[in-house]
Write a structure and sequence with these properties.
Layout (H helix, E strand, L loop, with lengths): L12 E2 L5 E12 L3 E20 L4 E7 L12 H12 L2 E2 L2 E8 L9 H16 L8 H12 L5 H6 L2 E7 L2 E7 L5 E8 L5 H6 L7 H19 L5 H4 L6 H4 L4 H12 L3 E4 L6 E6 L1 H17 L15 E5 L8 E6 L1
Parallel strand pairs: 1-5, 4-6
Antiparallel strand pairs: 2-3, 2-13, 3-6, 3-7, 7-8, 9-11, 9-12, 10-11
Helix pairs in contact: 1-2, 2-3
């Protein structure tokens, strides 16, 4: 979806000044191995956007955390553009804004940072309009999926937990499943980025029927493993559609995944990468995963292939939980 203001902007109603809204959105991991463009998990890393509407049409922008040194602080920022696009869809335009964004989720690492920003912005816009025009979260899902191009990250960011998403014609749908209490997500975030566009460009236009059939079986098994029987996470995360094709663009991550899986741990590429996600069955296995990543990191260049002419990768390892609430909106005043 193109993010723009309409030519006939003067016909839009202006949202009321004096509103203060804060939105907290979880990071997400999409695909989870075989669930390409359909499965997503909400994680306990949170980006926060706070907005106050003021008289006039000015914009004051405070930005902290991830991306604070590189992201714009003007109307070209994704959050501002998306607020404008969502308000336009609702028949409104913004007044002046004071906006503060605190980014915790790493950018360009496959943890849904752009989806989090999109969800936060659309939820802000939905709260800024009068109650009689305020949309529900299914509308939020539809617009966010249009903007992102697919629902696999935005659905868990909105609803939390494990989101199983699909497209019906032009409509995006999702169903939310409760994750087994023993599942422990661990992310190993490398010190390099990978664009989603590059990762997608490496995929073939078609795959053999045998690979598609194998992948559908593993995706079905993965849902069962995540919700009912975590002992099946290793076979459930086997992928036949995308990870192998993308490995050349994230060689350190691919090597870490191979090492973890060889040791019996359910490790996959998080989203388009390059973050590695391991799904442990309980705290004891989570300890083993963290120790395995530490051994891999210590081995340095001998264990990690060189990436883009650089030597050994460093990893930021975080043991997380599954977020079960999704995006939370707090209205400070109306």
């Amino acid at each position: 979806m193109s993010l723009h203001m309409p030519a006939a902007a003067a016909s839009l109603r202006t949202v009321a000044a004096g509103q203060r809204i804060t939105v907290r959105v979880p990071a997400t991991s999409a695909n989870l191995g075989p669930g390409y463009d359909s499965l997503g998990l909400a994680l306990s890393l949170y980006d926060t956007v706070s907005v106050e509407t003021v008289d006039g049409d000015g914009l004051a922008f405070e930005l902290s955390g991830e991306g604070a040194d590189t992201l714009p602080r003007d109307a070209s920022h994704l959050v501002v553009r998306t607020i404008d696009a969502a308000l336009e869809r609702l028949g409104y335009r913004r007044s002046g804004l004071r906006l503060a964004a605190e980014n915790v989720s790493p950018h360009g690492r496959g943890l849904g940072s752009s989806a989090s920003a999109t969800v936060a912005a659309v939820l802000v816009a939905a709260e800024l309009v009068p109650a009689e025009d305020r949309p529900d979260r299914q509308w939020v899902l539809q617009l966010c999926s249009e903007i992102e191009g697919h629902p696999d990250n935005v659905a868990p960011a909105i609803f939390g937990s494990l989101a199983l998403s699909w497209q019906d014609g032009a409509a995006f749908r999702t169903a939310v499943a409760r994750v087994h209490r023993d599942v422990v997500p661990i992310v190993a975030v490398p010190d390099y980025e990978l664009s989603t566009e590059l990762a997608r460009s490496l995929l073939p236009s078609s795959v053999p029927h045998i690979a598609a059939a194998a992948n559908s079986g593993r995706a079905a098994l993965l849902v069962h493993a995540l919700t009912q029987d975590p002992s099946l996470l290793l076979p459930g995360t086997e992928d036949y559609l995308h990870q192998g094709y993308r490995a050349s663009a994230m060689r350190p991550s691919a090597s870490l995944i191979r090492r973890l899986r060889a040791e019996g741990h359910a490790a996959v590429v998080s989203g388009a990468g390059p973050t590695v996600l391991a799904l442990a069955a309980g705290a004891s296995e989570a300890d083993e995963v963290e120790a395995a990543v530490a051994r891999f990191a210590r081995a340095g260049a001998e264990a990690t292939p060189r990436y883009a002419g650089e030597s050994a990768t460093t990893w930021r390892v975080m043991r997380l939980t599954v977020d079960v609430e999704g995006a939370k909106v707090e209205v400070h005043s109306r």
